[in-house]
Amino acid sequence: MYVRDAKNRDEAWLLDHIEEMALDDVAFRSRDYVIAVDEETNERAGFGRVRVHKTDDGDYCELTGVGVLPTWRDQGVGAHVVERLVETAAAEGFDTVYSVTDRPNYLVQFGFEPVESDALPERMRERVAEKRESVQPDAVATRLRVDAFEMPARLREAFKNASPHEAGAESSEADAEDFGIDPDSATYKYDTGR
Prior knowledge:
Order of helices and strands: EHEEEHEHEHEHH
Radius of gyration: 20 Å
Number of helices: 6
CATH class: Alpha Beta
Helix content: 25-40%
CATH topology: Aminopeptidase
Number of strands: 7
Strand content: 15-25%
Oligomer: single chain
Number of domains: 1
């Protein structure tokens, strides 16, 4: 498993999964994303984005659109996406990154701290309001100094052995009821009468 920069060919995949997970896709640019990939199967498992807000008061870096496919969750994939995004922000000269999320406790394990709206730069206050109005009514802002990022050892270890979970028997095989057919009264084209 590794995390790489998104490529143009990833755009449709990203848009599909951003929509499926009801994530914020404002000002979408695939080149702003990173993608977690299984090195053996080349299967994409998760993604996230660095979004830079340029203002007259300075530039602000936001980590946004972080998502992990359901079959890859709880294996450190999201953690490594966040780590790569923090590294990208640091390489671009940012000392602090923000994230606006309805799951702040997930980010707290890496050193992010919740921030009251009145303590945020104006542009980040606007982002909180935008997210609350569009996709995450319970969104809160978090902040991290990039040099304070910490990866929990359990997530680093889980990532080394990550593999997709089985989707479960119910979701892997479709039956007649999945298509709105009552199996007790339906007749089939090739019904043998047995």
